[in-house]
Structures are given as structure tokens and as C-alpha cells.
Amino acid sequence: MPVLFVGHGNPMHAIRENHYTHTWTVEGQRLPEPQAIVVVSAHWLTPGRTHVTDAPRNRVIYDFGGFPEELSRVQYDTVGDHEVARVLAHRLAEYEAALDSQWGLDHGTWSVLKYLAPAPQVPVLQISIDDTLPLPRLHELYGRLRRLRDQGVLFIGSGNIVHALGRARWEPEAPAWDWAEQFDADTAAALTDRRLDQLLDPYGTWREARIAVPTDEHYRPMVAALSLLHPEEEVRFFNASIDMGSIGMRSFVTV
To answer: Residues 29, 31, 35, CA angle at the centre, nearest 5°?
Structure first.
């Protein structure tokens, strides 16, 4: 199965038709049929431990505020799978992965799967992010799941490489900040060349990182997706633009 990283951006994309959502739809139509879909979302942080969803049906989590009521009425009906959850947790066992029946699908997951996989006939699960782990260790952790791709598991990281919400420009068609474009371009080049040392140490590599990634919870799903690639695999970018001036929508899929 391929691996995707999706820049999910503003939750409002879930109820809009625009070039981002159109591209998600097209990319979803290109995907082979998986046996299961597993998402690492920037919006499920579990400090000190990694969790895996384990419920027969996934509840939809509306983890935001101040948005139109319409957004909180979006439905995304999916099932979980205990055996898949158990296998994922077993692969992560050294890090004390926990099965979690309380979480569901947060907006980092359903807002993009709504387009990528509108009516999945296979189980959908999430894996949380232990945001206390250094990035190299996080990369090693998720890399333990790579072989499950050969068994039909589609892995998706959902976050944003550039995510400086406090500097967002809310006016329509707002231009990107120079530092946002520079960091996006630098990380894209590093992804193309697979310069892991740089990508796993963004603050020590690029001076724009501190402003483009003030906190790294949205960057970490990219690291998760990166860890699942085979050494010889290349990636193809899509939605490679900056939204709202400071939210990088750049996404990639293996080719």
C-alpha cells in the first residue's frame, strides 16, 4: 500500500468545495483498496505513551470551537477492528502502546478521509502521538509498522509541515509569509532527497523553523509518514501551497 501525508489545515475544508478538497477526492480515487486505514493525526496527543483506537464503531470527535454549527453535524460512519488494533499495539509494544476504546476519529482524520475515502468498507483506526519523544525516536517507533503496508494497511499522517496558526492571515486569498514559503521549500527539498538528519532536526537545521513550527504537533505526523517509507521510495507532492499565509497544505504520497 502507498503511504500518504496530508496537510489538513482549516477544519472548514470539511464543508467546503475548493482546490484542496478536490485534490483529496482525486487522490483518494487513485488509491488501491486497503484492508484497513490507519491515521496518525496531529490532534491526538498522549504524552508518555502511544495509544491505538480499539472500538467496534468510531465516534466522530468535534475537537474545535468557534466554527459554524454545520461543521459539528458532519458525520463519518466507520468501524474499528480489534485484531488490527492488537497487531498495531504489538508492533509498538516496547513503547507500551495502549488500546484505547474512548477516543474516536478527530477532525485531523475525518475532515480529510471524508474526501479520500468517503464511504470506507474497511476498518479505520488512529494511532496517537507521544509528543514527549524526540523526533528521531518517534521516527524509529512508527517505522516498526512499515511491514504492515505489505498486508494491505494504508497509513496516513495528517498534520501540517508549516503550522503557525498565531500568524494566520484571515482575509481571502491572503499571501504567504516569506518565512513560511522558505521553510516549505526547504523541507520539500529535504523530503525529495530523503535528508533524514535535517528533517528530524528542523530547529537545528533551518532558521525559519522556530516561526514556521512554533510547536511541532502538526509536524510530527509528517515524521510518522516518513518513517513508513522504504529507502528506495520516492514521493509525489500535491496541494503544495500555503493557506491563510502560514498553514502549509503540502502533502505527499509514495510513487
So the answer is: 125
